[in-house]
Fold this protein.
Amino acid sequence: MRRVAASILLMEALVVALAVPVAARVADADLGLAVGGAAGLVLGAVAITALLRYRWAYVAGTVWQALVIATGVVVPAMYVLGAAFACLWGTALWLGRKHEPRRVPRS
């Protein structure tokens, strides 16, 4: 599950980074604000990816999904892209819980 979740976060971070020119050109957003916001989101995704060995990082990843969807306020296409990645994230968590082997504590 960790590999799939990490892949989803990193690919989504790439999409967020590529949304900066769209935000600056099409949405008429301030370039500095677009770059700063995207950089914060990308760094957040990388940090969460590095911390996926902890259970709370999956909660942080879910919150991150909501933040990406919220960027649709600036670039409306991010509503659709963010929702698509959120569905992938939710599916990865669901399948991971369902199919990962259970760890039996040693006695």
